[in-house]
Amino acid sequence: MLTNHFIDRIKSTLSKLSGQRIQKIGRAANMLWISFGDDIVYINFRGEPVVKSEYALHMQCNWEILDGNKIILEQEDFYVPKDEASYQLFNVEQFGNSKFDKVSIEFNAAIKTNPAYVVNLNVDATGGLELELSNNLIIKVCPDIPSKGESWRFLMPNSDEGHLVVFED
Question: CB-based contacts of 61: which residues, under 8 Å, 6+ apart?
Fold first, then answer.
């Protein structure tokens, strides 16, 4: 369980997402990333300009994206082949092979044509999140209980505030 002070910090920091547009979802290995807000030019550690979104959530814990009560994507979809034909050749590390890859491409196309915005945010005592979007989708982040290490982080690349990291040890 997180302290009330830390839960308040999470709510305060994530309040920046209120009204922000979800830009895109994707993965880096078995980590889900979701970008929000406007595109900004960020100078990386090499001094090179890189275009990123204002905000990002990175999750390496249980998560779901729901349409009502129907799960359209979840963490386990990283490990499910996109179709039966690809089952024997399935390689989770190769983008395009998993159910997540297939559905995320469709998801990103849909939110590009019909933008969705964060309309509500809930945080629980374990660091779990629920982000409600204007298109009636819900993003649920459910840290493992008990978890070891990082569950999720909130990044603000063009800010001096640093990252907000939620973990259990």
Answer: 75, 141, 142, 143, 144, 147, 151, 152
